[in-house]
Amino acid sequence: MKKHIPDPYWHKVISFAKSGLRILAGTALIFFWMPIAGILFIAAELLGILEEMV
């Protein structure tokens, strides 16, 4: 059986996690927690890179 590339399950899981981090980062911006927002946005971008590799 041929493996699907990209793997739809992991692509979805990582995509949801990335969206969750972006929502948290946006919330941090509302409360002016800039360092936390920055870290969360960077983590979301790293997940975006990982998402393209699965």
Topology readout:
Elements: H1 8-30, H2 34-53
Write a structural description.
The chain has 54 residues and is mainly α. It has one domain (8-53). It has helices at residues 8-30, 34-53. Helix 1 packs antiparallel against helix 2. The longest helix has 23 residues, at 8-30.
In short:
With about 55 residues, this protein is mostly helical. It contains 2 helices and no strands. Helix 1 (about 10-30) runs antiparallel to helix 2 (about 35-54).
Helix-strand topology string? HH
Strand content range: under 5%
Structural class call reads: mainly alpha
Major β-sheet, in short? none
Number of strands: 0
Q: List the uncertain runs.
A: none
Helix % is: over 70%
How many domain units?
1
Characterize the overall form: elongated
How many H/I helices? 2
Kindly report how far apart the N and C termini lie: 18 Å
What is the residue-averaged pLDDT? 92
Radius of gyration: 14 Å
Core attributes:
elongated; 80% helix; 0% strand; 54 residues; mainly alpha
